């Protein structure tokens, strides 16, 4: 099987006692013959390292490579990039330590890249599953045809129109090298997926495989699913900043892309504020106004946000906006049907 490209899976982990085994088992269940798992322990205080080490013989028996690295706690984004820089595979992928791959995931994504040399990314669908029922096959990660058929994946990722779930994509290592060209890969508290996926999408076609090939486990209170409003806003702003930093590596004319990305981020913040019942100790009206003004400067206001702004301020215009918004929604539903 030496003629098959080596696939590297990078897995950062912090205190994974409760779920790490199922992620490692899912890697061992892969049908693809050449896999390297780069496991980075991010300063765990439980038995995570011992669990990972206990899999060494099983990986060897399958002729898989298991590389184990330990570091002081820096956060998953830093751990993932540290692992990425140590990966030796021709194709690169991430898997969060609480998620799982379906058995044919690596093979299908790798074969797609092998059969399409002009594409640097293959991406798939997946299942969204609750922590208490990880075998559930009900809800898909990607349901939008626009997301599946995105013509310019690079722009769609920057603008937040396409998701970048760990475990759903694979990227040629050569594309990552070409993109950064000696620049350090940005490390961030706000994730690691875009640092790998954007270089693959840059000036390249991609392959979308409309098949669920992984299980994305939703754990309450995890890094990507914060419970409080302040943390949600911090993460949304951080996700924008990492896009900005990755774009700056190429020093391209990215003003319009960044403006669009910021518009999306501000809308996400406003939606989070509106979804919060009492502000959770924050001044909901003041916070909404801050981002409302920024969205106004970005020329991104919609009738919905104008309506909510008027309602928060008890403006007489709220009745007008409510009526117009109701009509707009009725027309949208009519067009869809």
Your description of this structure?
By secondary structure, the chain is α/β, with parallel strands linked by helices. The chain has 2 domains: 7-218, Spore Coat Polysaccharide Biosynthesis Protein SpsA, Chain A (Alpha-Beta Complex); 229-336, no CATH class. It is built from 14 helices and 9 strands. It has helices at residues 20-28, 48-53, 56-61, 76-84, 105-115, 145-148, 153-158, 173-180, 193-201, 229-250, 255-275, 284-297, 303-312, 317-336, and strands at residues 7-13, 35-42, 65-71, 91-94, 100-101, 119-130, 139-140, 169-172, 205-218. Strands 1, 2, 3, 4, 5, 6, 7, 8 and 9 form a 9-stranded mixed beta sheet that branches. Strand 6 (119-130) and strand 7 (139-140) form a beta hairpin. Helix 13 (303-312) packs antiparallel against helix 14. The radius of gyration is 22 Å and the shape is globular. The model has no long low-confidence stretch (mean pLDDT 93).
Please provide a brief summary of the model.
The chain has 337 residues and is of the alpha/beta class.
Q: Would you count the extended β strands for me? A: 9
- Specify the CATH class of the largest domain: Alpha Beta
Query: Overall pLDDT, averaged?
Result: 93
CATH superfamily of the largest domain: Spore Coat Polysaccharide Biosynthesis Protein SpsA, Chain A
Query: What is the C-alpha radius of gyration, as a whole number of Å?
Result: 22 Å
CATH architecture of the largest domain: Alpha-Beta Complex
Strand content: 15-25%
Fraction of helical residues: 40-55%
Largest sheet: 9 strands, mixed
* Order of secondary-structure elements: EHEHHEHEEHEEHHEHHEHHHHH
Count of separate structural domains: 2
pLDDT < 50 runs, ≥5 residues: none
């Amino acid at each position: 099987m030496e003629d098959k490209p080596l696939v590297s899976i990078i897995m950062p982990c912090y205190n994974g006692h409760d779920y790490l085994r199922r992620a490692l088992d899912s890697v061992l269940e892969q049908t693809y013959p050449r896999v390297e798992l780069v496991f980075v322990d991010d300063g765990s205080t439980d038995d995570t390292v011992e669990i990972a080490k206990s899999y060494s013989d099983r990986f060897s028996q399958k002729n898989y490579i298991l590389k184990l690295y330990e570091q002081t706690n820096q956060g998953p984004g830093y751990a993932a990039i540290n692992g990425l820089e140590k990966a030796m595979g021709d194709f690169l992928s991430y898997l969060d330590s609480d998620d799982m791959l379906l058995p044919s995931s690596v093979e299908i994504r790798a074969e797609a890249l092998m059969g399409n040399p002009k594409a640097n990314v293959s991406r798939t669908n997946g299942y969204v599953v609750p922590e208490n029922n990880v075998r559930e096959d009900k809800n898909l990660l990607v349901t939008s045809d626009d997301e599946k058929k995105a013509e310019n994946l690079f722009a769609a990722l920057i603008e937040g129109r396409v998701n970048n779930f760990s475990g759903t994509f694979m990227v040629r290592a050569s594309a990552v090298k070409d993109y950064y060209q000696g620049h350090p890969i940005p490390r961030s508290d706000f994730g690691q997926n875009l640092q790998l996926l954007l270089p693959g999408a840059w000036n390249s076609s991609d392959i979308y495989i409309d098949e669920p090939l992984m299980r994305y486990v939703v754990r309450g209170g995890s890094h990507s699913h914060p419970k409080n409003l302040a943390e949600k806003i911090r993460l949304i702003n951080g996700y924008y900043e990492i896009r900005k930093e990755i774009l700056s590596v190429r020093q391209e004319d990215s003003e319009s892309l960044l403006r669009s990305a910021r518009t999306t981020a501000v809308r996400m913040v406003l939606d989070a504020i509106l979804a919060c019942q009492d502000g959770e100790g924050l001044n909901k009206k003041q916070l909404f106004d801050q981002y409302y003004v920024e969205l106004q400067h970005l020329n991104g206001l919609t009738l919905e946000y104008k309506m909510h702004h008027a309602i928060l301020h008890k403006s007489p215009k709220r009745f007008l906006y409510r009526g117009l918004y109701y009509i707009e929604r009725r027309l949208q539903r009519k067009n869809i049907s």
